[in-house]
Amino acid sequence: MNRSWLAALIVFLFCLAGLLGGGVLWLAGSPESASWLWMAGGIPALIDLLHRTWGALRRREAGVDVLALISIAGALLMQQALTASVIAAMLASGRLLESFAERRAGREMSALLGRAPRSARCYRKGALVEVPLDEIVPGDRLLIRRGEIIAADGTTITEHAVLDESALTGEALPVTYRGGDPVRSGSMNAGDAFEMVATATAANSTFSGIVKLVEAAQHSKAPAARLADRYALWFVPLALGLSGAAWLFSGDPLRALAVVVVATPCPLILAVPVAVVSAISRCAQRGILVKGGGALEALASARNLFFDKTGTLTGGQARLIRIDRTGAAARIDDTELLRLTASLEQMSHHVIAGAVVAAARARSIPLGVPDEVSEIPGAGVSGTLDGQRLLVGTYDYVTRGAEVPAPVRDLLDRTAVEGTAAVLVAVDGRYAGTLLMADALRTEAPRALRLLRKTGVRRIVMLTGDRREVAETIAVGLNIDEVLAEQTPADKLAAITAARESGPTVMVGDGVNDAPALAAATVGVAMGARGATASAEAAGIVLLADRLDRLAEALHIAHQARRIALQSVFAGMGFSLLAMLAAAFGFLAPLYGALVQEAIDVAVIINALRVLRIRPLRAARHRLAAADVERLRAEHQRLAPVLDHLDTAIGRLASMRPHEALPALMALDTILQEQLLPHESADDRDVYPAIAGLLGGDDPMAAMSHAHREIFRLHRSFSAGIARLKTQPADTALLHELQRGLHALDAILRLHFAQEEEIYQSVTED
What range(s) does the P-type ATPase A domain occupy (predicted)? Predict the structure, then answer.
């Protein structure tokens, strides 16, 4: 429990005890004792107000506390003890709510420092010993075991080192370093243990620099002004002026006190904290952790959004996107190639190996157990399975035991530009194909960005440490206004600092390298499901549900909460103004004025509680059961080999003669008829009507049904072409026509599946 919350709780309990205790004494026939207890109950609130008001004046700020201080002090001086006690209890309850709304997790870098190693394994006098970080000096020889964080910058002396640098650079795929290459602190060893030589102390290394950046950003970030204080700038002088006028023209100081009591801005003091607390609670129900009211208020006014790429717009993990068998000598199909590769990759601890195995299991491909397995960390793995000798790994590794055709070199050049990892496979000394792995775009990302635009975001920027080519590949089609690539943590911090000058700015990230920018932004938003703990600590909002569209929901809730809070503020101040006029003309005594003010308080609090009923920003009015959504996704996974087979057929047609292509095309046609077309028919017949009922409208799935018709049309054209090819086996023009038709079918199928995935997610239960 933090000190602010504890202090507010103690003051509230004292004020409540004084008010209730005095009431009991008054009913028991001891009005004088009751008066003293009421006065005693108001003293803690008065002291708390004096402290806060003095602090505000030192900062040259005028807040809502000024009127409250005057009303309690005036009531005590004029011996209106019950009035003072009522006002004190009311203000203490508002202070308690406000402290609760602003209570947030510590941002003192505890998690970031928790990621940092406390010691390192270092060779001293020929022995391996564990030494504190501050004892590391340049030239020390360090051992980094699997899963450990590098403690200091240095160079590798082991032949291979595989590092996960996603926390530093945003690069999702692991990076392989050879002996003599420089490595940075903060990277995690994703491969086997390796040795390195330190080139800097831990305090002067990369990771320590990021820690210092976050600390500097947090200290330089000015606190957001309270919403209530902004409206108090004109309300406080108005109330004081009316109070002075009432005293001047009537000569009765009680009228002045009554005006101040009625003017005590409880709609400001209570409505805003209640709305904020309710909004924080509503966000929590949606898997959004908001650490304080300031973050929520700032989010409501933000118009500039900065996104990291890896783990934010993308999933942050490698996935199989395609199997390329151009120029392959080994005649095996895609499913068998994936089975052989994944069976061997089971024996490796490499991150990419795990992704290959996951792809095979997602397709329900049974895996075998290889023999004679040998691995060069970061390069590749070899073994024997079903009597076949397998080589799986990098181009350099596979070419040691197999001849790889020239087109594969061009493929690798293209994938390097696109940020795709290539896993080459050779079977019995013959090149068999390449598995292409990439960090795929989140399914909900396009929809999330559209929802953010809908909620008022004007500028969206991708801010990533990844290469420009990779960043722009992801940004295509997302309607992103600007891409800033190859950004260091310091570059990200500078970009956010500059953007803040033009208005409130939101930064969304998940890695340690994002922590400084998250701390510097007006509102930092961290992907907390799999993101680094440091980013979650530096951020003001954490998306606990691993879905980017939750940010749009948070923004929607913030906007609605602000609107409801302002309704309460203006309605409450309007009623307060009427009561102030009545008090000024002598129609309300101070005590009755306090009771009227309490009635106004109840009204504004009830209105502010409407925040709890804010509906999610979702397109669908109803939800599809999560089990049904998983079933639909599983069907897509089962169809993944069909898309792989289609892609392979397209690639091989270019090098095949018509009489060679006919059997392959007929086999593909059989697969399409037996697996793909029944699935699309079932979707149109059974799935789409159910989803249309959830989305509402006349025919929300019309465009998707049109895509089905186009898929069936392309297949009919393909089948007719095969029939013609049987009678004209030497017609190369017809073969080219079939190839173009398959290209169109492949494109529309991949687009159609992606659209269906997005729709399924938009209607899924939480």
Answer: 116-215
Q: Where are the alpha helices (DSSP H) in 329-390?
A: 334-345, 351-362
153 is catalytic: no
- Measure the N-to-C terminal CA separation of the chain; round to a whole number of Å: 31
Q: Is 222 left (phi over 0), alpha (psi -120 to 50) or beta?
A: beta
Number of DSSP helices (H) and strands (E) in the chain, helices first = 29, 22
Give which of 652, 593, 669, 706 is closest to 332, Cα–Cα. Answer: 652
- Residue 418, classed as helix, strand or coil, is helix
List pLDDT tens digits, range 200-225.
888 877 677 666 655 544 444 444 34
The predicted-structure confidence for 571-594, as pLDDT tens digits, reads as follows 877 887 888 888 888 887 777 776
Q: Which residues of 643-654 are buried (b: 16+ CB within 10 A; e: fewer)?
A: bbbbbbbbbbbe
The yes/no answer on whether domain 111-204 falls in CATH 3.40.50.40 is no
How far does CA 103 lie from the centroid of its chain?
Answer: 21
Residue for token digits 């308690």?
96
The two three-digit tokens of residue 66, written as one number: 């000024």
Provide the CATH number for the domain formed by 626-762 in this structure: 1.20.120
Cβ count near 539 (within 10 Å): 31
* Domain segments of the chain as ranges: 3-106+221-280+559-613, 111-204, 626-762
**What number of residues does the chain have?**
766
Choosing from 65, 140, 164, 308, the catalytic residue is 308
Please report the pLDDT score of residue 622 as a whole number: 58
How buried is residue 538: exposed, middle or buried, by Cβ count under 10 Å (0-12/13-18/19+)? buried
Give pTM, 2 decimals.
0.63
| Order of all β-strands in the sheet with 430-441 | 314-324, 430-441, 421-427, 388-393, 380-385, 371-376
Q: Encoding tokens for residue 470?
A: 């990779």
In whole angstroms, what is the distance from residue 237 CA to residue 251 CA?
20
Residue 252, phi then psi, degrees to nearest 5: -110, 110
Q: At residue 652, what are phi and psi to the nearest 5 degrees?
A: -85, -20
Residues 6+ apart with CB under 8 A from 436: 320, 321, 322, 323, 324, 415, 420, 421, 422, 423
Structure tokens belonging to residue 304: 């500039």
Nearest-angstrom CA–CA distance, 59 and 365:
67
Task: Reduce the DSSP state of residue 614 to 3 states and report it.
Answer: coil
Closest CA to 186 of 159, 213, 160: 213
- Which residues, including other chains, have CB under 8 Å from residue 438's CB and lie 6 or more apart? 318, 319, 321, 418, 419, 420, 421
Closest by Cα among 225, 246, 228 to 91: 228
Contact 648, 333 (CB under 8 A): yes
Whether 437 and 423 have beta carbons less than 8 Å apart is answered as: yes
3-state helix, strand, coil in the chain (%, to 5): 60, 15, 25
